[in-house]
Specification:
- The complex is a heterodimer.
- Chain A has a single domain, classed as 3-Layer(aba) Sandwich (Rossmann fold).
- In chain A, 34% of the residues lie in helices and 22% in strands.
- In chain A, strands 3-2-1-4-5-7-6 form a 7-stranded mixed β-sheet, sandwiched between helices.
- The longest helix of chain A has 13 residues.
- By secondary structure, chain B is an alpha/beta fold.
- Chain B is built from 10 helices and 14 strands.
- The two termini of chain B are 41 Å apart.
- Classes of the chains: A alpha/beta, B alpha/beta.
- At the A-B interface, helix 3 and strand 3 of A face helix 9, strand 14 and helix 10 of B.
C-alpha cells in the first residue's frame, strides 16, 4: 500500500465485491478476534461485528477513511500493511484479513508472512489477473486491462503487484502455507464451480478468496 | 470580577467547587517520596451517576485548565473550557454520563497546590510543596473516584497534559478504565517541550516579585514573569499558519510603522493580551509545579523502557486523536503510543485530523474531533451496556 493515492478501489456497488465480503465473513468463526488490513470504509468490519459477533479491528492507509470508520464506532487505525503489521505481537488475532489489498502492497510476501505470524489464520482476497477478460484485453487490444474491479489506468494505480489465482497458489506452496479453503467468484459475484480444476478457476474467477493457515 | 488566584481567600483555599478532604491518615505519597496530607481535591460534576455506577467519565484538564469544564468559570466569568465536547447532547453527553473533573494536585483552583495554605505554617505552601508528577495527579484522582464509590470509570478523557493523565490512568489502573481518549497527547514530554517549559519557569523566577517563591506572603505576584511565560507558551499552542491567517504582518495602529518598541504588530498585542489575562487567573508557582510534572512524564520509563509493557494485556478501548498542525504534541507522538498499544494487544482507534489550529485544536470547535469522539463513545457505551440518553433508566 505504498501508493500515494487512496488505496485500491473497493467498489462495493459491484455485486462481486459484496459477495466477496460475505464469503470472507462465512470463513470466520463467531466470537473470534479479527484484524482487517486495508479495511476501507469499514464495510467488512461492520458486517463481521453485526453478524459474527467478533472483536473486529481495522487498519487503513487513507486517513479520510480511518476517520469515517472511527466516527462510525469502529476500532480502526491509520497504517500501512507493509510497515505497521510488524508492530503486532505473534498470535494477536485469530484471523488477519487482507481483502482486495495484496496487489497494492510493496512486499506481498512479507505482508503474508506477517499476517500468518500475527494471526493464526489469514484470509486473502484479490482480483484475479488471469481472468479471461483481462487476458483478452492484453492479448487482443494490446492495452493494460481496465475493468469494473480494476478501474485505474496504469499510470494512476496503487495496484503494483498483480497476480493470478495460479500465481497465488504457487506462492502459498513456496511459503509452506496451507490453503484451507479457496473460493473463486465470477464477474457476477457467483461462485465458480467448486469441483472445477485450478486452470478453470484461473480463467473464469474474477476474484479469488483464500483461507490460509501456517503449516 | 477581582481575581485573586492564590492567597488565603482566593479559589485556592475557598473554591467555588465541590471539595473532598483526605486527612493525615489517608495521605498522598508522591513519586518524590513526600507525604502530602491533608489533601484537598476540588472538583465539579455534571449529570447523574446511574445505580450501577457504570456511566462515569473522568475529564482530565490541561496545564492551565481547571475543573470548570462545562460551567461558567468563577474566576473569569467565561464559559467552561470544553463546552464543545461536554454538555447535554454533546459527545461527552451529560444527560447520559456522569462527568467528573477535578483540579490537579499542584493547581490553584482549590486542590492542594502551592497557593493553598499550609496547615503547618498557616502560610501558603509556595515552593515548600513537594514536586508533583502526572502519576501523583492521577493517584489523587483515583482517591477522589474511590471516595465517590466508583470502581470502574466508563471513560477517562483529556487533551494535552490531560491526555498524559489518561495514559497514566490506563497504565496504572487498567481494570478501572473501560475506555480512554487521550487527545493531542504523548507518552513522554519531549526535550523540545521541556526546553519551552524551562523558558517559562525562568521568566517567572527572574521576576524580582517572585521573591524566591514567597510572593504571596508579601502580597505580591510575579505578573510580568508569568505573562512572559504564557506568551512564549501560547506561541507553541498555535501553528505558523494560524498565526499568519489571524494576524499576518498587520500593524496595530494603521498602515505606517511607528518605529518604536511598543506593540507595533497585531500579533504582539494579541500575545500581550494573552499574557496579562492569564496572570489574572493563574498562580505563578502553580505554573512551575504543573509544567514540572509534565517534564517528568515518561510512561515507558516506569515500565523498563517499554511503552508496550505499560499497556500489556489491557482490556481498555483506546481512541487517540492528533492534529496535523500540532507541533507541540505531533502525530508521531500519538503514533508511537498506537504502536505500543498494538504491541500490547490493546484495542485502539487512531485519528489524525487535518487542521491549521495547532495544539489548541483539541479545545476548539473542530467538527471532526467531535464526530470521532461521539462515534467512539457511543460504540463503547453499547459495549458497556449503557443506555442511550432517551432510553428509560
Amino acid at each position: 500500500m505504498s501508493a500515494a493515492t487512496e488505496g485500491p478501489a473497493k467498489d462495493t456497488s459491484a455485486g462481486a465485491a459484496r459477495v466477496d465480503l460475505r464469503v470472507i465473513a462465512e470463513m470466520i468463526e463467531a466470537g473470534s478476534r479479527v484484524l482487517d488490513v486495508g479495511c476501507g470504509d469499514g464495510d467488512l468490519l461492520r458486517l463481521l461485528a453485526d453478524t459474527r459477533d467478533v472483536d473486529a479491528r481495522g487498519m487503513e492507509l487513507s486517513q479520510r477513511r480511518v476517520n469515517l470508520c472511527v466516527a462510525k464506532g469502529l476500532s480502526v487505525i491509520q497504517g500501512d500493511a507493509d510497515i505497521d503489521l510488524r508492530d503486532y505481537p505473534d498470535n494477536a488475532f485469530d484471523y488477519v484479513i487482507l481483502s482486495q489489498t495484496i496487489q497494492a502492497t510493496r512486499q506481498p510476501k512479507e505482508v503474508l508472512k506477517n499476517m500468518l505470524r500475527v494471526g493464526r489464520r489469514a484470509i486473502v482476497s484479490f482480483p484475479n489477473f488471469g481472468h479471461w477478460g483481462i487476458r483478452a484485453q492484453l492479448a487482443f487490444r494490446g492495452r493494460m486491462p481496465v475493468t469494473g474491479n480494476l478501474s485505474n489506468p496504469w499510470w494512476d494505480t496503487p495496484n503494483i503487484h498483480f497476480c493470478t489465482i495460479r500465481d497465488f497458489v504457487e506462492l502459498a506452496r513456496d511459503m509452506s502455507i496451507e490453503i484451507e479453503r479457496a473460493v473463486a467468484l465470477d464477474a457476477y459475484g457467483a461462485r465458480v464451480r467448486v469441483s472445477a480444476p485450478w486452470w478453470f478457476w484461473n480463467m473464469f474467477g474474477e476474484q479469488g478468496v483464500f483461507l490460509l493457515k501456517r503449516k | 470580577m477581582t481575581a485573586n488566584p492564590g492567597g488565603g481567600n482566593g479559589e485556592a483555599d475557598n473554591p467555588h467547587s465541590l471539595v473532598v478532604k483526605f486527612s493525615e491518615n489517608d495521605p498522598l505519597i508522591t513519586d518524590a517520596g513526600a507525604v502530602l496530607a491533608p489533601l484537598t481535591i476540588a472538583y465539579q460534576t455534571y449529570g447523574v451517576l446511574n445505580a450501577a455506577k457504570s456511566n462515569a467519565i473522568l475529564v482530565c484538564h490541561a496545564l492551565t485548565g481547571d475543573q470548570h469544564v462545562a460551567n461558567v468559570n468563577p474566576l473569569t466569568g467565561k464559559s467552561g473550557w470544553w463546552e464543545t465536547m461536554v454538555g447535554p447532547g454533546k459527545p461527552i453527553d451529560t444527560s447520559r454520563y456522569f462527568v467528573i473533573c477535578s483540579n490537579v494536585v499542584g493547581g490553584c483552583m482549590g486542590t492542594t497546590g502551592p497557593a493553598s495554605t499550609n496547615p503547618a505554617t498557616h502560610k501558603p505552601y509556595a515552593v515548600d510543596l513537594p514536586v508533583i508528577t502526572i502519576r501523583d495527579m492521577v493517584r489523587a484522582q483515583a482517591k477522589l473516584v474511590d471516595r465517590l464509590g466508583i470502581d470502574q470509570l466508563f471513560c477517562v478523557a483529556g487533551g494535552s497534559m490531560g491526555g498524559m493523565q489518561v495514559l497514566q490512568w490506563a497504565a496504572s489502573y487498567p481494570e478501572r478504565v473501560f475506555c480512554a481518549m487521550p487527545i493531542a497527547a504523548a507518552a513522554r514530554h519531549s526535550s523540545q517541550n521541556i526546553a519551552f517549559h524551562e523558558v517559562g519557569r525562568q521568566a517567572i523566577m527572574a521576576d524580582p516579585a517572585w521573591r524566591a517563591g514567597r510572593y504571596l506572603d508579601a502580597g505580591e505576584r510575579p505578573g510580568k514573569g508569568l505573562a512572559v511565560a504564557r506568551m512564549a507558551a501560547h506561541i507553541t499552542y498555535m501553528s505558523e499558519e494560524s498565526l499568519h491567517n489571524k494576524f499576518g504582518r498587520r500593524l496595530q495602529g494603521g498602515d505606517a510603522p511607528k518605529f518604536s518598541f511598543d506593540a507595533e504588530f497585531q500579533v504582539e498585542s494579541y500575545l500581550h493580551h494573552q499574557g496579562t489575562s492569564f496572570v489574572e487567573r493563574f498562580d505563578a508557582n502553580s505554573y512551575l509545579y504543573v509544567t514540572r510534572a509534565m517534564d517528568y512524564f515518561d510512561l515507558a520509563a516506569d515500565y523498563g523502557g517499554s511503552l508496550a509493557a505499560a499497556f500489556k494485556g489491557s482490556k481498555t478501548r483506546f481512541c487517540l486523536v492528533s492534529f496535523t498542525s500540532d507541533w507541540l504534541f505531533p502525530t508521531a507522538a500519538s503514533r508511537s503510543v498506537v504502536h505500543a498499544l498494538n504491541a500490547g494487544g490493546a484495542s485502539v482507534s487512531f485519528v489524525e485530523i487535518e487542521t491549521d489550529k495547532g495544539h489548541d485544536a483539541f479545545l476548539l470547535d473542530v467538527p471532526e474531533l467531535l464526530k470521532t469522539s461521539r462515534g467512539f463513545l457511543d460504540s463503547a457505551a453499547r459495549a458497556r451496556g449503557l443506555r442511550a440518553a432517551g432510553d428509560a433508566a
